[in-house]
Amino acid sequence: MKKRRQWLRTKYWVFFAGLFFAFAALAGAQQLASSPSTPRPPQEGIFLVFPFANAGTTPRLDWIGEGLEELTIQRLSAAGQQVYSHAGRLNEMDLYGLPSSAKLSRATMLHIAQELDADYVIFGSFTSDGQNLTVEARLLRISPVALLPVVSETGSLASLMELHNRLVWDLLRTADPSFSVSLRDFSALQRPLSLAAFEQYIRGLLANDDDSRLHALKEAARLEPDWPDPAFAIAELYFQRNDCNSALPWFSKVPSSHAQSVEAIFAVGVCRLRQGQPERAEEVFATLQEDLHRNLVSGADLPEILNNLGIARARQENLPAAFTVISRASDIDPDQDDYPFNLGLLALQQKDYARAETYFAEAVRREPENAEDRSFLIYCLEKQGKKADAATAREAASEIFGDKGLPPLKLDSKDSDSLTRFQRVVRQLDITSVRLELEGPQKPQGNGDPAAPKDASTAHLRTGRQELSAGRLDVAENEFRAAIAADPHNASAHRELAEIYRRRGKLDDAAHELQLSLAERDSAAVRTMLAHVYLEQNKPDLARAEAEKAVKLAPNYPEAKELLERLEKGKTTGGGK
């Protein structure tokens, strides 16, 4: 089981990937406009949407709560707003050990939004007698914190789609009283969708078993043949079953203008690898990589794409090109062990055992609890005749996995294809974070505007994250410094700068920046990061104190709990001194 890595690594990658997808989302929204003269709504900030609570007594309508969340996300996105996906919210809740069905207090919503750097939270409730429907929604502004007035719409249940459209328009006007886009122009940006199809789609997403899920999603696709969302959900279901033959036709129904088109294309590339078609897989991943460079920050890369592109090239015996791209993936993501592991396999293909040993040792360093990493390291040591080192590595492994915990390796030295089955293909892009547009309307920053410094700080923060994802630490550091210069109270900028320092081994500076971040906003994630820094500084008592504070702040946060348990175990055995 993979050990959780905090350091906000996942957020970096998904944040940057979200920029890529925003181009497709934006193109789709523009195609929905009734005419070139239809005005685009101004961007109001980043929204985080929670399910609407069923305040009535009809459980069979519970699907509406999730449906209103999804519909709000879709409509904000179609209108060019920046909004976290449903999966993004669930991912953040999972980090804190909160079940997806948990009923959250406003304080918890606020805390999650702060961790995601959202500007607004949308939540609400609905009541219905099966014929009529009333929906109430509220905006919780993050900075400065304020609960904005209730927005309410009432109508027949059959008019849910139109009713909700008015509701979202009202919410945007609440966020900005000067919002000047008419309801008619806002509606022109939205995809016309039947309530029956939407209900089937949501029921499909909520279904507990695959057969029920497929039945509902296919019914939604039948009712709205040109709506890509059910097609993508069906394709994903087949893809998770490893049924690429069934998945591929559904993935093909997802147009390039759709926000999830890149996910679909990436999955097609994985299928081509599964089907033994490395040439076609290389074409898919190479095209994605080219599009990434063309549409985003110059030179930017996503490690998932690079890894799979390298595997496709390796299976065509183009080992030098495979080494190049997988090495880049390994450099970009310094915590993931799969990338150095795959480099080790490439070195083994060339019977370069010394080089392979280096890569597998790096994989073990990144993920000490992966038995396969250790088995290959020991194999390379034995192949080089390093019997003492191999024995030491086995002893270390037995302390973790037991005497028989290492998987046996059966490799055919005459058949390089025997290594193919060990290659670690990344199955899907993690795009659970916000889909931000690369460039969009900026808020006014004229003289005397008190919001200008914070807007500038946010812009530098986002650019810094893009640069960090691209692996350009110098540029990222400059952006984070600029963010702090514009707003010294930007907790996120201090946190990100700390990550730069940590990567460079400047642990004192990293600890200082994390302390500054905590002084602005307490956070279990940041305290856990600080605990890790203290451990690297060989300060277990300080690390334990931060882990305890993190657990007290977020009792279900897995990373903090696991770290504290490890520290307490070390204290008991004397290993924490």
Describe the structure.
The protein has 25 helices and 7 strands. It has 577 residues and is of the alpha/beta class. Among the domains are: 155 residues, Rossmann fold, CATH 3.40.50; 118 residues, Tetratricopeptide repeat domain (Serine Threonine Protein Phosphatase 5, Tetratricopeptide repeat). Helix 10 runs antiparallel to helix 11 and helix 20 packs antiparallel against helix 21. The N terminus is likely disordered.
Characterize the biggest β-sheet: 7 strands, mixed
What CATH architecture of the domain at 34-188 do you see? 3-Layer(aba) Sandwich
| Rg of Cα set | 25 Å
Write down the oligomeric state.
single chain
How much helix is in the residues? 55-70%
Class by alpha and beta content: alpha/beta
Question: How many strand segments?
Answer: 7
Query: Which overall shape is indicated by the principal axes computed on the Cα atoms?
Result: globular
Key terms:
577 residues; alpha/beta; Rossmann fold; Serine Threonine Protein Phosphatase 5, Tetratricopeptide repeat; 7-stranded mixed β-sheet; 6% strand; globular; disordered N terminus
TL;DR of this structure?
This protein is of the alpha/beta class and 577 residues long. Strands 1, 2, 3, 4, 5, 6 and 7 form a seven-stranded mixed sheet that branches. The longest helix is centred in the N-terminal third of the chain and has 24 residues.
Reconstruct the topology from this structure.
Elements: H1 9-32, E1 46-49, E2 53-54, H2 63-78, E3 82-83, H3 86-95, H4 106-115, E4 120-128, E5 132-141, E6 146-147, E7 151-156, H5 160-175, H6 183-188, H7 195-206, H8 210-223, H9 228-240, H10 244-251, H11 261-274, H12 278-295, H13 303-314, H14 319-332, H15 338-349, H16 353-366, H17 371-383, H18 387-401, H19 452-469, H20 473-486, H21 491-503, H22 507-520, H23 524-536, H24 540-553, H25 558-573
Parallel strand pairs: 1-3, 1-4, 2-4
Antiparallel strand pairs: 4-5, 5-6, 5-7
Helix pairs in contact: 1-19, 2-7, 7-8, 8-9, 9-10, 10-11, 11-12, 12-13, 13-14, 14-15, 15-16, 16-17, 17-18, 19-20, 19-21, 20-21, 21-22, 22-23, 23-24, 24-25
